[in-house]
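Record type: monomer structure entry
Structure origin: computed from sequence
Chain ID: A
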Amino acid sequence: MFDWTKGKLPGKPSRLCGPATVTDVVLYIRPKHMTKIAAQTKNHDYRKYELPDTVHRLWFFETEPVDAITFMATTGPAKRPGEVRDSSGIGNDDFDAGLKGCKFGYPIIQLYQFTDPLDRKTLKGKYGLTPPTSHFVPPPWLSRDYTPEKLLLRLF
């Protein structure tokens, strides 16, 4: 069984994930970037590291001053520079030209907003979770308790 308390995913996902299939990842994001995604002016999330091909949900943990999991997005396979070919999103042309310093782009297909964001106090008090300092595989209760039908508002 995957130990989510140590669930950091850079490097070789197969080594880190064991027999479990990783479908969800919590990513840290600056509020200014999350605002652009929510406004649909930014339609990809760019990272220096590749996530496992099995990931299809991105849970966004906004950094200070928000400091909470606030959004969940469905995504598709990672794209590499030159593969996005969509000038409508902020940063897409720079990514395609190899100017962003990131090697992987994740399309934002659908976006859901938490009606009640999961801040650190709630995560620790209700669930006993102290989030790691880097992206991580969430505990099973996150995708079980926070579904589009429960506690999430679909934005697009």
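Annotation 1: The longest strand covers residues 110-119.
Annotation 2: DSSP finds five helices and seven strands in the chain.
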